[in-house]
Amino acid sequence: MKCGILFSGGKDSVFATYLAKKSGNEITCLITIISENPDSYMFHTPSISKVKKQAEVMNVPLITQKTKGEKEEELIDLENVIKKAKEIYGIEAIVTGSVESAYQASRVQKICDKLNLDCFNPLWQKDQFELLNDLIESNFKIIITGVFAYPLNEKWLGRKIDQIFIRDVLPLVGKYKINPAGEGGEFESYVLDCPLFSRELKIKKTDASGKQNSWRMEIDLV
Amino acid sequence: MILIIKICNKRFHYYEFIKPIEDVLKKNKIEFQTIHYKNVSDMLLKTAEKIIISGTSLKDNGFVKDISYFNWIKEKNKPILGICGGMHILGLIFDGELKKQQEIGLTNVELKKEFLGFIGNIEVYELHNFYAISNEFEIFGKSKKCPQAVKHNNKPFFGVLFHPEVRNKDLIVNFVNI
Question: Which of residues 115-174 of B touch A (CB under 8 A)?
Answer without folding.
Answer: 125, 127, 129, 165-167
